[in-house]
Amino acid sequence: MGIPETDSATPQDPPLPVPVTQTGREALRALLDRPRTAVIGLDFDGTLAPIVADPDQARAHPGAVPALAALAPKVASVAVVTGRPAGVAVRHGGLAGVPGLGHLVVLGHYGAERWDAATGTVTAPAPHPGIAAVRAELPGVLDRAGAWPGTWIEEKGRAVAVHTRRAEDPEAAFDTLRGPLTDLATRHGLIVEPGRLVLELRPPGMDKGVALLDHLRATGAESVLYAGDDLGDLPAFAALEKLRSDGVPALLVCSGSSEVTELAERADLVVDGPEGVVELLANLAAHLA
Description:
There is one protein chain. The chain is built from 9 helices and 12 strands. Helix content is about 35%, strand content about 20%. It is an alpha/beta fold and about 290 residues long. Helix 3 links the parallel strand 2 and strand 3. The two termini are about 25 Å apart. The strands form 2 sheets. An 8-stranded mixed beta sheet has the order 5-4-3-2-1-10-11-12, with helices on both faces. A 4-stranded antiparallel beta sheet has the order 6-7-9-8, with helices on one face.
């Protein structure tokens, strides 16, 4: 079953992939029919940017900014929803000062921070006091847990993350550290967000689902596409599944990963990592007036 062309599409426009579910096909149809009331939501790492061993070296796929600049003026909003600080995602994504991105926002720290392309400013509340306490205790906790060589700490301002990707046995290090880090987080009023060989300690109450829903309400969105790749994107998927039950068309896209299968199993459409996401965004832009 194909997706009917829009009035503005031409035979030269690249084809759009067809979602595997009926609800996904209906959501894509709604987005194509009424783009000015649609929101495009996107994770950053693993979705717009390839996963790399050192998160400080992560950069958006070369085609991401051109695709976003072509798409953003044609929809109500593009929202990058990330666990990173908003300013870091903006820098690593090359999103500041780009013509065409006036409708783009970055919801950093799972929505605790917001950067608006229209103003170039970040707004955020005061940091949770538990972060400073966890930061001070974390090295000792890691030592007592076994001090896996290659495990390292990432400072994220409003959160702190422990990566095991560089350890000799990344999965074993991840499994060993999950319990002690959960105990540490709980003592200081925080939660642990597991990801792709990373455990992030952060404040409760915000996740990508909450952040995305708040943004959809603020924009009056009538349809939405969200693309993600990791466990932290499951709340966004769950929020949009609830929206669909309320009659709001929502297209769930998985930026394919062999490390995380939960999203692929719930997605309407699976694409080939950041390259596939960029291709989807560029093709959407080509099909919209």
